[in-house]
Amino acid sequence: MADRIILIDCPDEKGLIYNIMKVIYNHQLNVTSNQEFVDGVSGTFFMRTVVEGNGWSSEVEKELIKKLPDRATVRTSVMKKKPVVVLATKEPHCLGEILLKNRYGELQSDLKAVVSNHDELRPLAESFDIPFHHVPVGSKSREEHDERVSDVVQQYSPEYLVLAKYMRIFTPEFVKRYPNRIINIHHSFLPAFIGASPYKQAYDRGVKIIGATAHFVTEDLDEGPIIAQDVLPVNHTYTAEGMAQAGQDVEKNVLTRALKLVLEERVFIYKHKTILFE
Amino acid sequence: MADRIILIDCPDEKGLIYNIMKVIYNHQLNVTSNQEFVDGVSGTFFMRTVVEGNGWSSEVEKELIKKLPDRATVRTSVMKKKPVVVLATKEPHCLGEILLKNRYGELQSDLKAVVSNHDELRPLAESFDIPFHHVPVGSKSREEHDERVSDVVQQYSPEYLVLAKYMRIFTPEFVKRYPNRIINIHHSFLPAFIGASPYKQAYDRGVKIIGATAHFVTEDLDEGPIIAQDVLPVNHTYTAEGMAQAGQDVEKNVLTRALKLVLEERVFIYKHKTILFE
Amino acid sequence: MADRIILIDCPDEKGLIYNIMKVIYNHQLNVTSNQEFVDGVSGTFFMRTVVEGNGWSSEVEKELIKKLPDRATVRTSVMKKKPVVVLATKEPHCLGEILLKNRYGELQSDLKAVVSNHDELRPLAESFDIPFHHVPVGSKSREEHDERVSDVVQQYSPEYLVLAKYMRIFTPEFVKRYPNRIINIHHSFLPAFIGASPYKQAYDRGVKIIGATAHFVTEDLDEGPIIAQDVLPVNHTYTAEGMAQAGQDVEKNVLTRALKLVLEERVFIYKHKTILFE
Amino acid sequence: MADRIILIDCPDEKGLIYNIMKVIYNHQLNVTSNQEFVDGVSGTFFMRTVVEGNGWSSEVEKELIKKLPDRATVRTSVMKKKPVVVLATKEPHCLGEILLKNRYGELQSDLKAVVSNHDELRPLAESFDIPFHHVPVGSKSREEHDERVSDVVQQYSPEYLVLAKYMRIFTPEFVKRYPNRIINIHHSFLPAFIGASPYKQAYDRGVKIIGATAHFVTEDLDEGPIIAQDVLPVNHTYTAEGMAQAGQDVEKNVLTRALKLVLEERVFIYKHKTILFE
Fold first, then answer.
1. Are C100 and B92 within 8 A, CB to CB?
2. Does the interface ipTM go beyond 0.90?
3. pLDDT by residue (tens digit) across C14-57?
4. C-beta atoms of A14 and C25 within 8 A
5. At what angle do helices C93-103 and B93-103 cross, to 10 degrees?
6. How close D210 gets to chain C, by Cα (Å)?
7. Chain D: residue whose CA lies nearest to A252
8. B25 touches chain D (CB under 8 A)
9. Same domain, yes or no, for A140 and A74?
């Protein structure tokens, strides 16, 4: 039986770990991994515990809730691959990386389909035997296009949407359908260079380091909770295009690092920030 | 005789290196280091050449100017320690690092004095036998205080002013007196988190990497040409104060790296950006 | 009352966290920080828990031992500054960094004295009002010199000895007196370039990255448990001396990072390796 | 007409750059990029110059040789894609990365074929329409197998062989056929952990950073000139397998970084080390 992941957050109080472990111990569950964090500022307790699957029953969850403070959240899930749909535009590097890692089991992903507003990436997706859907924008309004994308996406019932350099902004209506379920890669070290053309902005400002940021998508553009970031040194010999090219490896590495964390249920979202149990 | 540094910038044209090297060769000067960069976007040529001191005369400079295009700039200087004044407030880490590196000759600096709006750092400066001047703000206006600081600074005729966590903003009048001669360390990865309390801003945004930026001070706050940047990974366990503490090592390393470049005449400023010959 | 740090290691078994937390809970101690790690290969459990000082009594420790498996180790200590003696030779950068961080309370250290086989660093130590002892080697054998050093060191009853570029090798007898209590900085990315002149070795091999390693000193030279490492990119323009100079910042940063971990009781040594609760 | 790359190395002497630039200037060639390096230890001059293709003739090369010291080497080549054969075994990450970057023109490579001692990677190569050759070892001696591999490779007349986690050691005879033309990725930060199972060695030693090294293959195993290296922080929670998995991204990034440098003719080999004009 697959391992069970238990995610708990609640107001901090004395004896929490004791009370949680008592329930787990009474059910003779073996803890294979356990991590806690107390946010001292807000007095909030977070815990990620993995127990071996045998002996698990929904009773455990019920008992945990009974033992915990009123505003506790307890989520449990089985460790297994999750259905994912990728949205991309024209750049192949992030999509290619996900296709490779999905194929060789390096992510807990079951990649169902690739959806794009352009047709350029079709051969790449199809060479990995992943269905590709071209949803051209044409004369459609943003609302109409998002509606059409949504129709295509929904047939795969994905648990997560991954924006692998999808160069369009979703309507709030679209975002609301996937709360904390859309992961984007932004090609800058947020919050520097929000919006379009971050490499051009970085070039103009003359920064000595560029970066990439993977974050959850919220209704506020480029403002969602950050999951992972990384950087790359640059210098005066880089044009804006050179930065964009050099940044590709960082973008794809940051995006798949974030995906790995999310798909393995290692991420709490709290107060617009993430808590990562790596 | 000390080595001579030659810094040239001019519009790019065919034969530039040839023409420059002809002058140097005709004077039988030995080139010990030579670096060029052509900014393709603006068509501008930059060169830093170091020649052995023997055989150098002001004639060389004159001949170079004659051979170069009209808008050429030729600057030459002897490789030697330059007078520097440090301004700081209360935090000792950047000042301490400069005091150590200055004492052991790791920077081309001749540290003349430390000036501060507080008195806390006096023992640190004085234990390195560096004069310390406390210029309290009291009820003085910004203009009056800057004037007073300026009086103290000027007695040392510094070539560069270093703001080692000097937590005040200079008036434009003060800045104008030292064009491209004031180096500041900003405790964020600019242009993220401009202004006050960057670590607090970083904490609130939930970034996964923090950084520091050394830059020339211009009249636009935090907008001057960037010389050096570096970063440090952080996570949800860091408070804003924890970030500030962890960031200290990055701040001091970035500041002294920038100082080393500036004091060794390795920095061109062009279009509000820096070109570094490292 | 100062916080109390509890360090536990024992064979892993079901219910460990539960049993430990039960004791802590029964004594009404508040847990401010808690970290566990199970080494799956050997089946060993490690835990670092910090509880608020009020309510602590030696009873807690006794009860914990009773509840734990036979081969358990329980160590507890109060969070406070620990007496430290630094040994150095001629290079000032590591010593300077420790003097600064010790003075401004950035390490949990109470620096008692500096001991050196040369006299060069005396002014540096004394400018920070730290006693300096010059123990010249002269015609003394290694054993005699170590004996003399030991005499000087022992008068300060240090909890840790820090080798801040101390360029001599201790006799096994000396090392045995301070088991897991001597921290050294080696100027290479161990296990690359063991022994003397690691930068020269790095230069000859043409590596593109150099590093530094802080480790506990054991009787096997450069083979003790590694606490911290970091690296720096280099290239063909670096001579061996240039690498040595560039490496200084990494050396001092790695050494003080390791010291911080050790002095805050965040380090377990197990099977010649370290487990760090950062 | 494609740009022309000129690579020169020779004993250093006064006037070298002048003499070289005179030839280039006399032929009215436009220099688009120029980099020099003088190895002060051996007194050797290295230069990489790129000139626009128009106006180039073999005369230029002849004149350069005439102007340069006796032991000068002048190599020139056109900037264009070079034929490459990849050898791999079972791990897909490095091969996958090369297939992607080759397909999208991010390397100056024309990937002709993949050769392997196993058949696992066939689908990956073939999904990118690259011929795949399985050359099983079976009961063949190392010499026989290398001979067979050589037969397959030679039909593609590759300029470079890339070992993308090819887990066999070549005979000296094989290596001699491709002097400075075989690029390998070793899964450690050389010279640490030479030979087999570097991640197991790294785990056993308890290092805090792991790495990867791309190098030219010589007859001395893992001793060839290093082209690129990079590292990744690890800690006590990593098993040897966990390190191997985490190291994959570093391996593939380092390998393709090295390939890019080699294929763009940015690498000099000198005294068993590399000089990189990046």
1. yes
2. yes
3. 889 999 999 999 999 988 889 999 998 899 999 999 998 788 88
4. yes
5. 150
6. 10
7. D249
8. yes
9. no
